[in-house]
Structures are given as structure tokens and as C-alpha cells.
Amino acid sequence: MPAQLIDGVQLSKQLRADIAARAATLTQAGHQPGLAVIIVGDDPASHVYVRNKVKACGEVGFHSVLEKYEADFSEQALLDRIAALNEDPAIHGILVQMPLPKHIDSSKVIEAIATAKDVDGYSVLSAGELVANLPGFRPCTPYGCMKLIESTGYDLRGKHAVVIGRSNTVGKPMALLLLQANATVTICHSATPDLGYHTRQADVIVAAVGRRNTVTADMVKPGAIVIDVGMNRDDAGKLCGDVDFAGVSDVASHVTPVPGGVGPMTITMLLMNTVESAERVLGKKQERPGQAAGMIPTPGVA
């Protein structure tokens, strides 16, 4: 049988309905979720992404602030704006759109965002929370991938998952999230010999390398779940992923399309992180006098 499509558009709609309901509850309590988005420069694609994020905020009832700056905006001025937003009680999430102009150190900018407002989940402290399995914000794309897998009803416990790609924003956090779901995880990358050897053993494949046809039908175990994170163009200029969709669809049990799979989930998980940030702040405000805040039990490790 042809693989079942994992519909990211439909799942995103369902999740956003829940986010909107949670935002409405917060707003009624006088605590409307707020997201600040900063863009520096005139990269056309970045402006499209930012516009979509701001639009999504409005659709779920968030307060949003969009700050646009020219390409010559100084690094220090940007850091100053982030510092001010860190202290703004109306803002629960801060996002600085990448890429930044070359004269600005993106790592320094990411680390300047308060961890409590790092809704992209990119900072070193956020990464540390993920590694230690502590509450924190997970990077939006791998977080969305986990929701897509979850939507199939598939139990990852004891299954073999192969992640192709080792970026800090997708590959590495994806592997950690799968590990936390009790999967056995293999990470493959550009220096991995015989990629197919590993993928043919996988119950779940997550392809995130940015190169089309990285995963073909002969590399997939029958019945596997295939998540395609790639965003590429074919020879005709049509959007495609890292997976040979037509071929793999004849082998896998479930597969995400491109477009319409992982893509819609990324902004949705940004919204999810932002509403969770607002809920945490409200929860702290409502703590009883003398109640310990931020006490997190040490998770068991097996």
C-alpha cells in the first residue's frame, strides 16, 4: 500500500486551535502572550518568514511586536534592543530572524536573549536544558517533527531512529528528542560511509541535510516512517525535500510531503513555545507565598 501522508497543514491547524484557546485564557487573566520579532537587513526570504510569523501571532490572539532595522544597524544597538525586550513583561518570546548581516555575531545575539524568552530554543542554555531533559524550549523544527510522528500513533520506545544531519538547530536536537522518547538513535552526516546501510535498519528516518534525493526507496525499510525536513528546488524549480517522495511512498508506512509536512509545523511550534512561556510567567505570579519556584526534580536516567 502507498504510504499514508502525515499532513502537517492539518495537524498545524489542530495545534493552533489549542494554542488560541490557551492564549484566550491567558488574555482573560490579563496576561496576553507576546512575541517580539526582530529583523535586520533586506533579505527577501527573511521578510516573508517574519511576515508569516507576525500574521500567525494575530490569528491565535497573541500580542506581537515587529522591529525592522536597516542592514547597517550596529551589533551593540541590536544587543541593547534585546536587553530591553528581556525586561519587558508584555513580551514572552523574542525571535531574531536569521541570517544577520556579516558584521553582527549571531551567536552573541542568540546568547543575549533571556533563556525564559528563547522561544526558538537556540541558546546554549536551552540546548543544555534539552540535553539534561529539563523543562525548556525545544527548537521549533525538531519539536514539530516529534508532533508529526506522535500524530501517527507510533510508539517510539525501543525503535531504531536514524537522523540524517547534525546541525545545532535540527539534527542534534532531533536526535535528543527521539532519545528522550526511548528510541535508539543513530546520527548520520556527510562523513558517514554507506548511508543506506544505516537507513535500511531504521524504523524512523528524519532527513535534514538540504540535498534532494538523499533518501531513495532502496534505502528505506518497508513500513518505516519517513520525516522530510529538507527544503530544496528540483530542476523545474519546484519545491522538494531531501527524500525521493514518489519512490519512498511505495515503501514507507508514513511519509511527510514537501511542501505541507514539516514546514507548517515550525511556526506552530514557535507559537506553542510562546504560549508556554506566558503560562510559566503567570504560574509563577500565582504561586503561594513561600512556595519554591523553579524546583525541578532530577529525572531518572536508564
What features would you describe in this structure?
It is globular and about 55 Å long. The chain is built from 10 helices and 11 strands. It has 302 residues and is of the alpha/beta class. Among the domains are: 24-115, Rossmann fold (3-Layer(aba) Sandwich), CATH 3.40.50; 140-255, NAD(P)-binding Rossmann-like Domain (Rossmann fold). Helix 6 (140-151) packs across helix 7 and helix 6 (140-151) crosses helix 10 (263-285). 39% of the residues lie in helices and 15% in strands. The strands form 3 sheets. The chain has a 6-stranded parallel sheet with strand order 1-11-8-7-5-6. It has helices at residues 8-28, 44-59, 75-86, 106-112, 124-131, 140-151, 171-180, 195-199, 245-248, 263-285, and strands at 4-5, 34-40, 63-69, 93-96, 160-164, 184-188, 204-207, 225-228, 232-233, 239-240, 254-255.
**Gross geometry:** globular
In round numbers, the mean pLDDT is: 94
The name of the CATH architecture of the domain at 140-255 is 3-Layer(aba) Sandwich
**C-alpha Rg, in Å?**
20 Å
CATH topology of the domain at 140-255: Rossmann fold
**Class of secondary structure makeup:** alpha/beta
Considering the protein shown, what is the CATH homologous superfamily of the domain at 140-255? NAD(P)-binding Rossmann-like Domain
N- and C-termini, Cα separation: 37 Å
What does the main sheet amount to? 6 strands, parallel
Percent strand: 5-15%
- Give the number of helices: 10
State the low-pLDDT regions, or none.
288-301
> Order of strands across the widest beta sheet?
1-11-8-7-5-6
